[in-house]
Structure formats: C-alpha cells, structure tokens
Amino acid sequence: xxxxxxxxxxxxxDVLFDAQALSVSMVNELGPFDVLPEHTNYxxxxxxxxxxxxxxxxxxxxxxxxxxxxxxTNVVEVVFIE
Length: 82
Description:
Layout: E1 5-10, E2 15-28, E3 31-35, E4 42-54, E5 59-72, E6 75-80
Parallel strand pairs: 1-6
Antiparallel strand pairs: 1-2, 2-3, 2-4, 4-5, 5-6
C-alpha cells in the first residue's frame, strides 16, 4: 500500500494546497469522513472544514462553505465552490 495521497485543494481562482499528504478529513451530508491511501473512487459534495494531514504530521485546515471532491487512485481533488 502506498502511504501517501496527492492532494490538490483550490478555490475558483487559486490553488490553496498541492502536495503529498497522509490523509484528508472532510464533511458531507452524512457526516465526517476520512480519505486514506487506496480509498475507493468517490465524487461528492462537501462543506465545513477540510483537514489535510501532511507528511511531516502537521495539519493544514481549510474552511469551505460548499465544495466538490473527487478521489481517484490516491489523488484527492477538492474545489471550493463557495
């Protein structure tokens, strides 16, 4: 198992995060969930805080009113709509 994810978080105009990470935590209509390496493919609407756990153990916290996330083969893309 690859222990890393490629994570890209952007809003309408800027890239807010683009690096390898250990995991990403988000919230959808069913509640909080985590994306770890080898997560199943997923597309969904998110809102609230996005927490990226970086390789060095630090956390990058980004606030999102509403966004879309797509997970495919150890790549997590998050686009903040609002």
